[in-house]
Write a structure and sequence with these properties.
alpha+beta
Length: about 130
């Protein structure tokens, strides 16, 4: 009787271990309803020449995408990424320049890749 339960326990452990190993191979990126494996994500990042932020994405045949998890969007090859938040919107580009307008504060702020920050009220650290 003990042997029977031992075999069942070993089978359950083996199946559970296998499921955990499979689960570890999934990434935290899904595109058009398809969750990518870690290998698929690595291949995609090599193809586009950059990192893909975690999230749930919608993408079209033109290379444009929307990350539903953080409301960023853009198109491959254009270099600009639009950002939207609860309080406003903005944009950032591949050079590291960015801007954001806050409707709540009624103020815009931006920055450049060399560390300069500026506001629409005339303040700047450069």
């Amino acid at each position: 009787m003990y042997q029977k339960y031992r075999k069942i326990l070993l089978v359950v452990i083996a199946l559970t271990s296998h499921q955990i190993a499979i689960a570890d191979s999934w990434s935290d990126v899904a595109i058009n309803g398809q969750r990518l494996t870690s290998d698929q994500l690595q291949l995609l990042e090599q193809q586009i020449g950059g990192k893909v932020a975690p999230g749930i994405y919608l993408a079209d045949a033109n290379g444009c995408w929307l990350n539903l998890s953080n409301a960023t969007s853009g198109c491959l090859g254009q270099g600009n990424v639009s950002t939207f938040s609860r309080y406003g919107s903005g944009e950032r580009n591949a050079k590291g320049d960015w801007n954001h307008y806050s409707r709540a504060a009624e103020l815009g702020v931006g920055g450049t890749s060399d560390g300069c920050i500026y506001t629409t009220s005339g303040w700047s650290n450069c």
